[in-house]
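Supplementary Methods S3. Input chains for the assembly prediction are listed below.
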Amino acid sequence: MALKMVKGSIDRMFDKNLQDLVRGIRNHKEDEAKYISTCIDEIKQELKQDNIAVKANAVCKLTYLQMLGYDVSWAAFNIVEVMSSSKFTYKRIGYLAASQCFHEGTDVIMLTTNQIRKDLSSPNQYDTGVALTGLSCFVTPDLARDLANDIMTLMSHTKPFIRKKAVLIMYKVFLKYPESLRPAFPRLKEKLEDPDPGVQSAAVNVICELARRNPKNYLSLAPLFFKLMTSSTNNWVLIKIIKLFGALTPLEPRLGKKLIEPLTNLIHSTSAMSLLYECVNTVIAVLISLSSGMPNHSASIQLCVQKLRILIEDSDQNLKYLGLLAMSKILKTHPKSVQSHKDLILQCLDDKDESIRLRALDLLYGMVSKKNLMEIVKKLMLHMDKAEGTTYRDELLTKIIDICSQSNYQYITNFEWYISILVELTRLEGTRHGHLIASQMLDVAIRVKAIRGFAVAQMAMLLDNAHMLTGNTQRNGICEVLYAAAWICGEFSEHLKDPLQTLEAMLRPKVATLPGHIQAVYVQNVAKLFATVLRGQEGVPDRQVAQETSQLLIDRLPLFVQSANLEVQERASCILQLVKYVQKLQQKEVQVAEEVTALFAGELNPVAPKAQKKVPVPEGLDLDAWINEPPSESESEDEKPKAVFAQEEQRPTRPRHPEVDEKELARRREARKQEQANNPFYIKASPSSQKVYAETPGVEHIPVVQIDLSVPLKVPGMPMSDQYVKLEEERRQREKAERKKKKEKKRRKDKCGRGHRAESGGESEEDITPAHTVDIVTEEMPENALPSDEDDKDPSDPHKALDIDLDNLVMGATRRPLVDNEKLPVRAHRPPDALKSPVEGGEGEGVAQEPKKKSKKDKKEKEKRKSKERKKSKEEKKKNKHGQERGEEPEAGSAEEPAAMAAAAEATTPPAVTTAEEAAVPVPEVVPDAAPVSEPDEPKDAELEEPKSSKHKKKKQKKEKEDRDKKKKKRHHRHHSDGGRAESVRNGEEEEEEEPLPPMSNYCLLAENPYIKMSYDIQGNLQDGSQVVVSVIFENKSSSSSFLKCMEFNVLDSLNSKLQRPEGASPHEAVTIPFQLPPGVSNEARFVFSVQSIVMPQKLKGTLAFIVKSEDSSTHEKLDFKLHFTCTSYMITTPCYSDAFAKLLESGDLKASSVRLEGVSMPFHHLLARICFHHHFSVVERIDSCASMYSRSIQGHHVCLLVKTVDQTVSIDAKCDEPSLLENVLQEIKQTFAKC
Amino acid sequence: MIKAILIFNNHGKPRLSKFYEHYTEDTEQQIIRETFHLVSKRDDNVCNFLEGGMLIGGSDNKLIYRHYATLYFVFCVDSSESELGILDLIQVFVETLDKCFENVCELDLIFHMDKVHNILSEMVMGGMVLETNMNEIITQVDAQNKMEKSEAGIAGAPARAVSAVKNMNLPEIPRNINIGDISIKVPNLPSFK
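Predicted structure tokens for the full assembly:
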């Protein structure tokens, strides 16, 4: 045999392995693709061979090729083959390949389900581990559904190595199969307190991921996380938790208050920068969430800012970057605290690292105020001169504009300064943001009326010096500003000192080199200027200037008429004709100025950028419907979108002047309309917007502009923004002095509320009066604009499906327990409504402790109420508070009842303790380090309102804290005593740990001797109607340190039931158990039996043979046992809806039987839970003390129960299509209750 | 969540790529190329974070990378991961590689991509951090390698011999291209496990 293998591998050794492939590729640098394609051919050959080792080798090589970008999906089936190899080596290769190239669309993936399941339950932990790792990469909804239950079982595996992987992969399962979240959540939560730090960290990881997407569902876990945060020393876990808190605090401000202290402590104590940073971040989040309510957190803010300063000053670029990042978060709510570090941030602008510079820029954006805007912008301008690289310079430019224009130019006190800044920016070479500057110029000129005169002068200068800007004619280049300049000069030409000069500048031949859309604006505005010139010459007796102007236009315009750009051409020929006509009139000495001016009369309003979008669609208008027959393909190709625009319906135009030739006017109108349509700054004169204009306080209604002449309006030469900085300083000084003299606060004449704030603020930045009181015209919005519809969440977000309410699961309340159809598709049984009905005691040690616990709890409860009453009497005066307290009382009273239950639950399941307790006893949770979330009322408020009561409270808190500590210890202790037991079932079926339920176990003793203890459970196999699975837990009990090995399990088969032995084994051969047992350890093995008839219970005799190996000796031992196959064990928990259930009963195929149980003292829901649990039923419906239940056998027999209880007597009426099966099941139920 | 882990050398040649979301091979290659393009033009003395933007996912994502001698280790993560934490994780990863390969160099990664994957899978699983304790990672990796060896048994002997022979005349295996500063610990995270 060995020889054969050696021979096989000698044949193999001349195959290329991965190293050879890599080497080959490196040696064929020139013809790599060709080499690889021959390699792929070889691989294809190898994959055809039977030898799994050859296949694995080939798959391994494919994985490498996949990384190089080669599609290897054609080998998917071979990968599955390698995955299913029994050897770990090959299995690992297979899973690696699968994890690299399988995805949801891979069809062979469905073939893997059973293989993965087998690997998951493999006795070798590394097989399981590899399967989990692989699965985490390619899990599909189908796989998730089919394997969810197996993975859940693994979450309680004995090995932490498996546990942590299983916990982690649950997140992927949830994503793909959201239904699994509710059933799996309790166990996941339990893993937060796993003894192994790795498992704990995995659980924290998963819950943080879940909570990040749907934080509100996880608020109730806050106390638990709080505990972890204060106890854990693992920085990874701490970081995750702290990040999670950052997501939770916005939802629950009370949580924030509690967090501040421990977080501050952590900030002070930790040496890990990563942790420090996250703490600061979360404190910031807390402060943001509190910013409205609590003003007194300046200490925390200071601390954060201080720490961030340290980070920013650090030489480590990473810390610097993160410091700036966090700083920008503080900035949003507490700009003042950041502003004091302006020096530092400006310093960062000099950093060599671009990411840091950009971050600093971001910060500056939020730091500006009226006071420092000029200064900051000045610094930025300096940087711009120094900055190399256009990207960064462009970034600076946009930032300057952003900073200045933010919140409607809130911080600009002197618009002349701003215009001159914009003009200076135009000198920036090679920028791509010409368009941005242009739109700013337009915006300011249109909206700030007072500035128009100055703006026009500056723009005229720009037009004059246009040759400096025309160098860069590319799209969005700086020449875009000429667009704005031309338009401003034209539209507000009345402010021009020398319109003729500007007109000449605009008609220079060089203009023809500008982009078309700019030329078009030039042409249009030339006409406007022409009108202005004419009007200026109106009264002048000498007509020469006017006629010369006309002649100038007639000379120059033909240049534009020849333009290749249609728009320019059309407008130019229009205007040319107009001017020719005007010239004719001029020669007849007719006064034309008024008519020509009238062409461009009227005020323009700015329109909000989103106005168009917000116009509501009128009722009955279907925008998608065709207005005419859909045009043919060729037609639509001919038409350009602009043409479509021009064909819009007639809009009301400006006042007509019948004197002017109608035809000519119509043409002009058309041209003008077209220009308007293309110019975003033209208000589209639709009737609705006119109406708005009339209703809202428009331009006319804004208080009259007052120009403060303390600032000279004209600065000689090209504008220098610096001059303004100085002038502004002087102005401010002067004003300050004046103010002192007058001592009169009311200086502001504009109606904005700013003056208001200034009064209270003393010498705040608001005191700075703008140089000219400026009416910033608000942008227009259409009538009944639709509310903004942003923030639409992406419907395809997978996390949406995980928005599942988990509170009731966590809190153990009965609001919405798991219902039948929410269970995972299970191969094992589990009580469906176990949550609803925590069963008292279970069996074993828990029961003994319960009464004691309960009494203690009661005592505490009483104590609590007493103290509350005391408090109440003190608060007698506080009426509303009192009312609240009263409102609370019934709650506390009713909480007492569940408290007993909770106590019971607590007594046996340590992990569930915290939550159950919280649900039952809300008030003690006021203790500072406990759940703020579970506080039912606002004791915190009481604390603020009444110092007396708060004092009292503190005392109480202290006491309770002690109490808790005691309890904790106790709990801890109990946990240990439970330990052995928990251990013994850990690897087994999941029901015990699944929900916060006392561990009920179906495992019963099989046999026992001084060396070994065997307990077992039998379940039906859902997939195969003739199989049952027997899970046996073997526990090494031997006192001395002896190993148990070579365990062999054998059963004497009966005619009806047979042990399934491995293939090739003889019918009586024993089954070897695939593990050894070190002393004190237990493990589980499963055996499959095939059964024929299931209507009768039966027993099988068997033997376990094993070797006891101690240090000095080893002995063969034997243990006989009897496997008892009850009829219950053939039942499978199957959910059933009440309508289906009713149909089943009506069908009449079922035989009835009944049984009565006397003296059953347990509560009804406990009784139901027991039946569910031990006999694999599910509750169909429950009304008061009556319930219908359902189960199905592995062979498809329906069993229906109607359970009623009256005074300790339980009657069960049952129906089933197989009477003997029913009889037996009922007998077994009876026995179950006889036992307790 | 970690969206992807990439290792490539100074020339952009991929040495390991692990995507935790599915992309086609072409997209993967493009992502690697673009990431290399972004990362390689940065100086060594600038910060290790890059707002990758459109690369994978969206604006929520960041590239966090470290550059060791000839190799870039790039993690693409979303906002739920701590930036400094991930930097540290990269360090742990590299140190683990260093231990497992005994003074790791680029050639180890080139010839043993599968082993690197195996190590990585003990650290990060399905995009989530599984283990940050180096000793624990090494223990598990060693245990699995041991198992592999025991499975190979005698049958594996000839193959091993052959591969030893093949490697003997390899001029390129010298281990002098080791990652120089690999032993530099992140100084400011002493208590990080």
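Chain A touches chain B through 82 residues (CB under 8 Å). The mean pLDDT of chain A is 73.
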